[in-house]
Design brief:
Helices cover 11% and strands 27% of the residues. The protein is of the alpha+beta class. The protein has two domains: 64 residues, Roll (Penicillin G acylase, beta-roll domain), CATH 2.30.120; 100 residues, 4-Layer Sandwich (Glutamine Phosphoribosylpyrophosphate, subunit 1, domain 1). The chain starts with a strand and ends in a 6-residue tail after the last helix.
Length: 218
């Protein structure tokens, strides 16, 4: 995001204001001081450490740079920021036998978890998989693996409560009763763009399953 100065003077990489929706806003300063004293188990001399971070409407400042001579700040925002506890709804369902009766119940419980994880399920009838996460809807043409201009906000983004429009249940990688399931940092689904390539660490797992189960297919 572009840096600015409230007095209208030319900004530098050290400026502590930024442009957001046409306004020059101050970065919020977050500070935390940690202190420690020596103990019988650790003789480290007493001391303190103050940690500082800068927060904007679009996340925490990670770096500063210039783009074509214009000073900018690189910021990072996750969709679960300020919403960490909400994923407890999915975990609660996982641990409730009355709500975990079949593969469909499992997948809909996993969909309540805002964090990105691969979840697996098995009972005496079915096996299933679901990839959870609050995946924000991005403007067309935006590559989620590359830095993006601040003007390309998530669809429906509300900076006051850090909410946005998220991809629907049906768009998440998922399957029920595939012949077998493997997972080891591999692409979650065919055509799913997450930065992985055509060769995955799960390939040896697949090879072992196929060797031990002739005719097995994914």
């Amino acid at each position: 995001m572009d840096l600015c100065n409230p007095d209208g003077s030319p900004p530098t990489k050290d400026s502590d204001h930024y442009m957001f929706r046409g306004q020059c806003l101050p970065m919020e300063i977050l500070r935390r001081t940690n202190s420690w004293s020596p103990t019988a188990a650790d003789s480290t001399p007493a001391g303190t450490q103050t940690l500082k971070a800068l927060r904007t409407k679009l996340g925490l400042v990670r770096a500063r740079a210039t783009i074509r001579g214009k000073p900018v700040a690189y910021v990072e925002l996750r969709s679960t920021y300020f919403h960490e506890i909400e994923s407890a709804a999915g975990f609660s369902d996982f641990n409730n036998p009355d709500k975990m009766r079949n593969a469909s119940d499992f997948q809909h419980a996993a969909a309540k978890i805002g964090y990105t994880f691969n979840w697996f399920y098995v009972d005496d009838q079915d096996i299933a998989y679901f990839n959870s996460g609050n995946n924000p809807v991005r403007p067309p043409g935006v590559d989620p693996l590359l830095p993006t201009r601040a003007s390309f906000e998530w669809a429906g983004f509300n900076p006051d409560d850090n909410t946005a429009q998220y991809t629907g249940f049906d768009t998440h990688p998922q399957v029920v009763n595939q012949q077998y399931l493997t997972s080891w940092n591999n692409r979650q689904a065919k055509g799913y763009n997450n930065g992985y390539y055509s060769v995955h660490r799960a390939d040896p797992l697949d090879d072992g399953i196929k060797a031990g189960s002739p005719g097995a297919t994914r």
